[in-house]
Structure formats: structure tokens, C-alpha cells
Design brief:
Chains A, B: Pathway: Amino-acid biosynthesis; L-isoleucine biosynthesis; 2-oxobutanoate from pyruvate: step 1/3. Chains A, B: Its EC number is 2.3.3.21. Two copies of one chain form a homodimer. Chain A contains 17 helices and 16 strands. By secondary structure, the first copy, chain A, is α/β, with parallel strands linked by helices. At the A-B interface, helix 4, helix 9, helix 10, strand 9 and strand 11 of A face helix 4, helix 9, helix 10, strand 9 and strand 12 of B.
Chain lengths: 529, 529
């Protein structure tokens, strides 16, 4: 039994979500994601289609042995029997039966044109396929759900037939008939009307399965629930083909926080941020900073004039408490930085300014001055934190001092493009020169610097530059253009962002790089010189 | 008058969209985006807040002189007068009046707690501020819209007061009162009820302004329109603070394609894909592949079993024809290249392909191949034109041939940062080596090259690199990351854009630079060697 059998959160990340362009899951990945979903406490986890391909077959074999689910029920997905064979003789249906999954979701066509053109059989045979397949699996003791594919297009094309599909499945023993907006073209108003009508006409228990092609996957799911469906399908982070499936994270948060409908185990929603990002690490698809509730920008505030009011009462500018989903409020230090936002930002970074008005004033002045020279700290938390630490202690944290660097990039007809760098640095009281090469000047300086420093700081080995952004800013007051470089660095456990600004792009990059390595060492617990 | 004054598409990319984390627009960027928005044909373009900061002030000054809008009306944004001063004495209100914008949007508090805690004035004074400010600007001949900030939270807290704000603004002469879900916590069902109630209670013309914090910004906007609002605010690509604003691209496509409500000039929707991506190049924020309608995955099909049915009838698996928004079904062609778009683009550039099917096919293949290697010609017209000319004549237009280059950047404690470059080049049948310095490697190569070439091409003297953008693209198929460089060059009469792609940033820049100078000479009427 799921947490709450009267309402189903049904996850299809491992099946429909994996249809996303650029998303490829190994068997190991699928097991890892299934454990995260179970931690979140979704009612059902659709694992894939056993028998359809070797990977899914292997996954179901390993899941049977290795997955110990504490909250969720494991589901196998597959099609109804082929036309004109007996259910018991259908090999794919047999694979579902033998998958070890306590529940099976069968996909069936609910759109007459699809039966004709894609399935190439008769409308009556399609109904028989549904009836036989559901009956067979039910008689084997499995719980059966039916995905009524292309349901809404089918309803427009041939309402009577679409309803007949729902009735047939329900009468054969399917627990839930999920109405699928397979092509994703629905809007909430029409979808809601159709759900109402189907509920009246069939008395079946209904579910909903939406895609985001009109930007309304979440709203369509919410509208269907309001209209009476009690089973909602979606994927973690909205992964899925084309524009993606309905994002279950958002739907769950909307249900629990806005509608006061509890659908997860107690306190599980607070794990949403962690789990959403952990799954993004497994899929290797960058999280959207703008994802509702759990995006890193979801509770980030830039507008300076909000900051003082936020200090009075955060609820004035937040629709929910970020902690309810495990997220945090973040203040972006921007052009309009005032005392209030600097104080809030420091608290967020865990740096104690102790309410010191003079110190805060000094930080505000530094930020304003640097911003007037092209710096922006809203995307460079780590550089901002170094600035804070510098103002608190009177000295910028430092592990090494670069005295000289040079980098050359050359194109010759013989050897193509080569880049080399030489860096002289003082660390641990010793000056030395190191060299490196790379696929660009920044990479070469980074390699040279790390080669030289690793004798003192072996932990630099694991750091990796994961993003690099360049912006040319127009000159002000007659000066030339300046270059702003943002660098993202990772140590495998987290990322941080640093900034460099200079009229010379290489100098700006070296500055951002120096901050990146310094902050990386602080993160590892090193005490500066 | 906008295209259709009975229904407003109102864009706030340049103001509210710019609140997005990591998004920083220069004055030049804002002008470029305004031109794209005008091409798309939105009714209103909100430019920013003149008087609030030097950048917006400069933008309005330049917009007055340089922006020639063919479809859209330009709007200035600002607040109602401060408490307890006369409207005529309020400097910020004066800046709005003097901005040159034919319309002004005033933001006002509609939430009693905000009036108290953030604005720190009385409820009556807030109403007086609204009345006076609207009256003042109307008497000066400007059209006035009112953004009723935090309207829905205000309606829950004090319905009578929220309604009084709407009535006060309407009676003072505001054309539209936009109900703002400022904190973004609404869902369509409740929002729809509130809009119905406000329409009944006030008779004012209403607008809607949504954020995506519940994943429902588009659906909320659609629900408000269904309930009777006739003015919808949003941003290109859903840019905006936290989870973003309502994505106007999606809303427009939903209205035109799903609701058959035409809101853009004829055929403009077909430019949506192009404009969405061109604006993403300006903002330097990566487009979401899963963006409805215009994401590169929005009509991309991965599921193998769809393929044959799609061949029978693409509409079986697509909710709309991708061409209706200028997008493509991805299994057939690449991002941009279709015969028709190549032909149209060529006509636009004034290059005659003479309907030569074989030639057009060759160009399509080249573009597809280059795009698969990270090129994008959307923001590099000049490089695309060079490619066209190359395919027409069998030889890329060329005035010089670079045989070798090298550039070194060095930082010493004595002389600071220096960058030098040496370039060997063949021109007019003569090989020679020239050197230059600059404030970065690209600038140094550019200077060296121009110093060497000016004996033959004195007109190179006037060229200037006016913008330089870098993006790191994730590697495909196991290759490393590659760097895409876009260069904008000006000859004082106009600008052109070129592209270079290479794993080495300097090599990519040199490639874009070579195109930039070559195209500059073509523009001056020089015949290539």
C-alpha cells in the first residue's frame, strides 16, 4: 500500500522522463533515482518496460533483488497484447507479469485515428486487447493501471470511443484509468471540462498524465485534480520528451502548501530541494535555476528596495517559506545593494558581521565602488565572501601570491593551435615558477598554477573549472571597454562562483581564477597564510 | 496605437525580466532587445525606470533618438509619487513625464500590509498618491497603466481596499489596471475567481501580471484572459526574478494557435523561434531546450516507435505545426536550416540564390554541419553571408590569408599587464609579419593585422570591435567543451556580427575577427582577391 491509497503520486521519471533529449540513464542511474524517489515518498515508481529492451530487462532483474522500497510501490510499464493473439501467449505481456512488480501500467490507444493509422487494427479489436490484457494481469494478482494514450485528442475526434476505452478498462479491473495528454496541447479550461464529463460518464477512478507543450503541465494536472482525478503522473524536475512532463516536485508542493492536501510522508517535502538536485546530478542535466520551489533562484531577491522590507517580514516578498521545501532565501548583491541586503547576504553565507554598523558601511562602500568598476556579485558569491572576510579581518584570505604570469597562444600551419603558460608564485615562503599548457590561456594558467601549488595543497587536484562566462562592458566616462569574467568551480561536492574584472580578458580571468582556488582551499578547511 | 488596442501584449523583459539572477543588460543590449520585440510585434515595450538609475536614464535618452518602432508603443515604468509631496514636485514622477514615452506604467501597492510596512504610509495617503500621480500624467497627455502590486495577497488580506485601489486608479484615468501576482503564489482556480469578482465590482479595464512560482505563470495568465482581462504582461523567454515572469512567447502561441485569438501582426508568430533565440544571445542566458513552442527540443522526437507513424502523419504526434512558430520537427532538420529559411535569409541579406535548388541544398547541408559543431548563425549574419557567397562562387571572399599568429599576455610586478601579438599574413601576393599590442589578445591580434593591412586597405582604420561575447558549449559525443565567440564590429555607419568556434578561445576569436575584417571590406565595396 502506498502512503495514501486514496490519492496517488505516480512518478514516471525512469520511463517517460528518460525520453528527454540528451538524457541517458544507466541501470545504476535508474537504481539511484528510484532510491531518491522512495526517499521523497512518492506512491508509485514506474521503472520502465521490462522485455522491451535489454537495459530495462536488466533493471527489473536488479530492482527485484536490490531495491528495498520503504514508501513506494514499484510499477512495470508496457502495452496491451498485440492484435489477434491471446493475452496468455503475448511475450511482452508475459514479461510484465513476470517482472516482479506488484503493479503494471498498460498503455492503450484511446484515439480512433491512432488505432487505425499507428496500431493498424480495428476499434473493436483494440477494446478486446484492453479487456484481455487487464483481465489476464489481474487474474495473476497484479494491480493494473491503464494509460489512455492520446486521450484528449481522441475525445475530440470520437468521444464515444474514448469513453468506451475508459469503461472497458475499468470493467476489466483496472484500478485507475490515466487520461494522457500525450501530445501536450491541452489548456486547463478544456481539460477540466473533459475530466468532469468522463467522471460523469464512466464512474471510473481517473488519473492524469500531462506534458508541458503549452507551458501548462502543472496547471493541467492541478485542474484535473480539482475536477476529481485522484492519481497524478509526472516526473522529477519535469524531465521528458519535447518540453517535458509535468514536474512532480512543483505539483506536490502546490498540493501540500497551497491546497493543504498532504500527499507525501510527514516532513518529506522538506527533502524536495535536496532530492531534486541529487537526481539532477544523476541525470547530468543542469538544474533550472528558475524551477519553482527548488530552483536556486526560486527564493532569490535582487531588487534592492525589497531588502529593507524583507528584513521586516520575509513573508511580504515570499509566497511560501523556502524551508518548507528545503530551499533558502538568497539575497543577490546587485547594483542596488544597501545595508539591509549586505546584512542578509552575510547571514546567508554564515559570516557574522555582528551588527557592526561601521563594518557594514565599509562593505557597502566597497561593493558600490567595485560595481561602478564593472563587478557584479550576484553571480559571484565566493568572491563576495572573500571580500567580507577581508573587511572583517583587514586582510584578504590568501594561500599564495602570484608575482608574474605569462601565457602565449600560437597558430602555426604545422602544429595548429597551442597554448602555454608560465606562472611565478610565492607560497609557504618560497618563490617558484611553474608552467602548463591547455586548450586556452585560462586553462593553461590554471594548469600551471595547480601544478606548482599541489606540493603544498594536494586538495587542489580535485578542483575543476565547470563554467566560464565573459562579458564586455562598455567603458564609462571615456575609459575603454572592460571585461568581466565569471568562473564556476567545482570540487565534486559543490560549486562556487568567482569574478574578475579588467580591461584585459586574461587578467580578468586570472583574477577570477585566483579567487576560485583561494575559496576552494577555504572550503576544504585550510587556514590562510 | 498598438496593432490591436482591444487586447494588449505588454512586454516587460527590459524591466522586470532584467531582475533575473545573472542577467545584466547594457544600454546597447536593451536597444537590441527592444528592436527584436518590435519585430515580434508586441503591443507595448516597457523600457525600464527612467530616473531611477543612470543606466535606465541613458537608455531612455538613446531610445528617444535611436529607436524607431514600427509595431510597438514604448512605455516608461515608475512609482506613484512619494507620500506627502505634490505630484508636480516629485522628481521621479517628473522623470517619467519627461521620458518621451507615450505611455507610463505606475506601480502602486494594493496590499494593506505593504502600505503599512514597506511604504510606511496610511491607506488613504496611498490612494491619494495613486489618484494624484495618474491625474498628473494624464493631464500631461500620457497614457497611464497601473500595476497593482501584490494585488492577490492584498485581496485576501483586505478585499475592500484592494478594490478601492483599482477603482481609484480607473477613476483618475488609468487605462488598464494590471493585477500583479507579485510573489507568484497563485493557482489558476482562485486567480480566476478573483479576476471575475474585480471585473464585477469595478468595471475597470484589467490586465494581468504573473510570476512562475507555482509553475503556473502561463496558465494563470490564460485563466485571467478567459475571465476577461484584455492586457497581459510577461517577458520574452519568461525571464524574471526568482522563477521568472510569465513567458510571453508561450502565452502568445497559446492565444493565437489554441484560442484563435490573433494578437500579433500577420505572420509574426512565425518569427517567434528566431526572436526568442536572438534575444537569448543578447542576454547571454542559455535558452531552455524544453521551452514550449520555441525550445530546440519542443518538437524533437526521440521515441523510436513514433517514427513510422510520424511519416504517415506528423499531426499524430505533434500538438501544433512547428512551423507556426518558426520551429522545426527535430528529426528532420537542424536548429535553423530549412530550405525556406535559407532562401528567406538570403533575400533579406540581398544575396540572390536564384532559386537554385542544388545550391540551396548545399547551403543547408553546410549550415547543419556547422551547427552540429557549435556554430549558430542566428546572431552572426555576416559570417552567414560569407558562407553564402562562398557557396555561390565556390570560393570564400578573401582579402588576405593569415599564415601564422601568436599572442602573449604577461603580468609583471613592474609593468603590469601587457599583451602583444604577431601575425604573418599574405595580401596582394606579398607575405609579411606585423605586430601589435592591445588590452587583450583579440585586441592585439586585431591591431597587428590592421597595422599590417592598412597599406593595402586604409579603410580598415575606421573599423572598431564594439562587442565580444563568449559562450562555453558543452562537448558533444565525448569531445571536450568548445568555445563560441561572437564579435560585433562597426564602421561608424552600421554594425555586423561574426562568429568563431574552436576549443581554444583565442583561435575562436581569431576566426570571428577574420570574418569581421573581411566583411568590413566587402561593405566598403572592395572586391575580394
Amino acid at each position: 500500500m502506498p502512503v495514501n491509497d486514496s490519492f496517488h503520486i505516480y512518478d514516471t521519471t525512469l520511463r517517460d522522463g528518460a525520453q528527454q533529449e540528451g538524457l541517458n540513464l544507466s541501470v545504476q542511474d535508474k537504481l539511484a533515482i528510484a532510491r531518491h524517489l522512495d526517499d521523497l515518498g512518492v506512491g508509485f515508481i514506474e521503472g520502465g518496460w521490462p522485455g522491451a529492451n535489454p537495459k530495462d530487462t536488466e533493471f527489473f532483474e536488479r530492482a527485484k533483488k536490490e531495491l528495498k522500497l520503504k514508501n513506494s510501490i514499484f510499477v512495470a510499464f508496457g502495452a496491451t497484447r498485440r492484435p489477434n493473439v491471446k493475452a496468455v501467449d503475448d511475450a511482452l505481456l508475459g514479461a510484465l507479469r513476470d517482472s516482479g512488480a506488484p503493479a503494471v501500467t498498460l498503455v492503450a490507444k484511446a484515439f480512433d485515428r491512432h488505432v487505425d493509422l499507428a496500431l493498424k487494427t480495428t476499434l473493436d479489436e483494440n477494446l478486446a486487447m484492453i479487456k484481455d490484457s487487464v483481465t489476464h494481469l489481474r487474474s495473476e494478482g497484479q494491480r493494473v493501471f491503464l494509460d489512455a494514450e492520446h486521450f484528449f485528442d481522441g475525445y475530440r475526434s470520437n468521444r464515444a470511443y474514448a469513453l468506451e476505452v475508459v469503461r472497458t478498462a475499468a470493467e476489466a479491473g483496472a484500478d485507475v484509468i490515466a487520461l494522457c495528454d500525450t501530445n501536450g496541447g491541452m489548456l486547463p479550461d478544456e481539460l477540466s471540462q473533459v475530466v468532469h464529463d468522463v467522471l460523469q460518464a464512466s464512474k471510473a477512478r481517473l488519473g492524469i498524465h500531462c506534458h508541458n507543450d503549452t507551458g501548462c503541465a502543472v496547471a493541467n494536472s492541478m485542474a484535473a485534480i480539482a475536477a476529481g482525478v485522484t492519481h497524478v503522473q509526472g516526473t522529477l524536475n519535469g524531465y521528458g520528451e519535447r518540453t517535458g512532463n509535468a514536474d512532480l516536485v512543483t505539483i506536490i508542493a502546490n498540493l501540500e502548501l497551497k491546497k493543504k492536501q498532504l500527499v507525501l510522508p510527514k516532513d518529506a517535502l522538506r527533502e524536495a530541494f535536496r532530492i531534486s538536485h541529487a537526481v539532477a546530478e544523476v541525470t547530468n542535466v543542469s538544474s533550472s535555476a528558475r524551477q519553482p520551489y527548488v530552483g536556486i533562484s526560486a527564493f532569490a531577491h535582487k531588487a534592492g528596495l525589497h531588502a529593507s522590507a524583507i528584513k521586516v517580514d520575509p513573508s511580504l516578498y515570499q509566497h511560501e517559506d523556502p524551508e518548507s521545501v528545503g530551499n533558502d532565501m538568497r539575497m543577490l548583491v546587485s547594483e542596488m545593494a544597501g545595508r539591509a541586503s549586505i546584512e542578509l547576504k552575510s547571514v546567508e553565507l554564515g559570516v557574522d558581521l555582528g551588527g557592526d554598523r561601521e563594518l557594514i558601511g565599509r562593505v557597502v562602500d566597497r561593493v558600490k565602488d567595485l560595481e561602478s568598476h564593472g563587478f557584479t556579485f550576484e553571480a559571484a558569491d565566493a568572491s563576495f565572501e572573500l571580500l567580507l572576510l577581508e573587511e572583517i579581518s583587514g586582510k584578504r584570505p590568501s594561500f599564495f601570491n602570484i608575482t608574474h604570469w605569462a601565457t602565449t597562444t600560437e597558430r602555426t600551419t604545422k602544429s595548429g593551435i597551442t597554448t602555454k603558460a608560465e606562472v611565478s608564485v610565492v607560497a609557504n615562503g618560497k618563490e617558484f615558477t611553474c608552467s602548463g599548457s591547455g586548450n586556452g590561456p585560462v586553462n593553461a594558467i590554471d594548469n600551471a598554477l595547480r601544478t606548482g601549488l599541489k606540493q603544498f595543497y594536494p586538495e587542489l587536484e580535485v578542483l575543476e573549472l565547470t563554467d566560464y562566462k565573459v562579458r564586455i562592458l562598455e567603458g564609462r566616462l571615456g575609459t575603454g571597454a572592460i571585461t568581466r569574467v565569471l568562473v564556476e568551480t567545482s570540487d565534486g561536492k559543490g560549486e562556487w562562483n568567482t569574478i574578475g574584472v579588467h580591461e584585459n580578458i586574461i587578467a580578468a580571468s586570472a583574477m577570477a581564477l585566483e579567487d576560485a582556488l583561494t575559496f576552494g582551499l577555504l572550503r576544504q578547511g585550510r587556514k590562510p597564510e
